[in-house]
């Protein structure tokens, strides 16, 4: 699910985690550098300086990575290594305490979910958008998916958006104040059709107008309850306006006519 109003805390947590990770890596690098210099300077052997420093670097890497494959130390180096081991333990403990758990919050999960949905939306094409995911919208979406069509649900209600996401649909969630952004994110420029199935005639009209503005060639199927509303929707850009009440009435009368035909 893509949320238009993405919780800012998720992005802030990611930035803070990166800052702390950089700090932890920097501290470990300082420990590595300090250990290399300390071990090398305390090496009283007659070996060349390059050999001493390489051996010191080897021991420092083993210290930081806790591999433990050290060379032989003199007494001064052993004392220094005790200090270096304590420093490494302190830095490692600090890093674990600072980084653990920061990326497991719900707001962070939403942040990564939005990033994943952004990549999907960038390549989305020839799909059908259904708005909203009410009773009619659910039936429309189900039949479209059964026909092999890629369905994108546009919703302003959190519970219905979560229901659609749980059923496996791609979903864009945004409140009424940001629904223009929802339509822009829906890639209507590459969509094949939009089904507007809401109960609010004013909302249906607004969605139709914005969608037609974003893509004048988009096929827009919308429900309208009377001739005046049909005219307004068609002027707003609707390709097909369906009166649900008229369809129900026609179906009911059709059942009676069918029974009369059978009796005669």
UniProtKB/TrEMBL annotation:
The alphabetical list of record keywords is: Membrane, Transmembrane, Transmembrane helix
Q: Which SUPFAM superfamilies match?
A: NAD(P)-binding Rossmann-fold domains (SSF51735), Voltage-gated potassium channels (SSF81324)
User: Boundaries of each RCK N-terminal domain copy?
Assistant: 125-243
Q: Which residues form a coiled coil?
A: none
Q: Where is the chain membrane-spanning?
A: 21-42, 79-96
Species assigned in the record: Paraburkholderia terrae
Spell out the protein name for this chain: Potassium transporter TrkA
List the GO biological process terms: potassium ion transport
